[in-house]
Predict the structure.
Amino acid sequence: MIALVGRDARRRIRLAARVIADSGARARVRGVTATRSVAAHLSRLDRERLSIGGFVVALTVFAGARFVAASPWDIPAFDAYAYWSTRDGLDYATAAEGRTGAYLYSPAFAQLIAPLTVLPLATFAGIWTLALALPLVWLAGRYALPLALLPPVAMSIGLGQLDIAFAAVAVVGLRWPWAWALPLLTKVTPGIGILWFLVRGEWRAVSIAVGATLAIGLGSAILDPAGWAGWFGMLARLEFPVLGGGLIFLPVDLWIRLPVSVAVVTWGARTDRQWTIPVAMVLALPTIFVNSPTILVALVPLLAAGPRTPAGRWLRGARSRRDRAPGWATSIRRTIDRS
């Protein structure tokens, strides 16, 4: 009897020891897995910091070359020069797309940047380069540096074009509709993105976008009515560049591309595909130059890579907060949007 009890006790002890050993092994596996997960996360953070840091360093060097008017960036032939030259007044009489130094945007944009145009050209160009290129970090995060090396993006930054700003509008404008005033008051047709709200019946967003544009335009027209008359006259001339003048652009008329752009954004709005907005903006540009596809960098935060970019996290964070709102709040919001 005593022997049986002893064997049973030993069996229980061995079983308990085995359970403890298995638990320890599982704990070690979990510990190794957690350690590897943390290491992978830190590795991703290091790569992101390295990429963003490399872009900021490269941009600083390039902007520095403009600050000191290093050749060839001191040549008064870039778009940045056209913006700076508005300090001497607006001349829409001979302005046309593709002409060197021609200012083609509304007087409202010239009035907005007026405080910067009092600076020397080199200082203006350096600040302008930083202001236009830095949003690429927000839009693309770790992808900013490889994107900046693509010819269209590099050309856009070098010229001082608004392409990256338009890409930012394609993202920001989904939450802040007033941002659409920028493309509407500059190149006009890329403002086609507001059709997204119109097709979806988001009338509050439509009224904000249109109201902000009209308010800015009216205030600007009060300050410079002659300038606005000249801008409308330039738009009415419908002058576009022609092949053979040394310019590289897509030789497809706006009147052919515009219906396609409308169809793209309409389809996207009905099927909840936000990535169609920057695509439609590019198609709707008055002329599609080599640098124009830079607007498509907005695809990064709007597609699968979005959660890994600051812009994508910002946009998805707003959406998740709306989704977590209580039912009555959601109902009120939808009622307001559609009223």
Observations:
- The radius of gyration is 28 Å.
- Residues 51-310+325-338 form one domain.
- The chain has a mean pLDDT of 84.
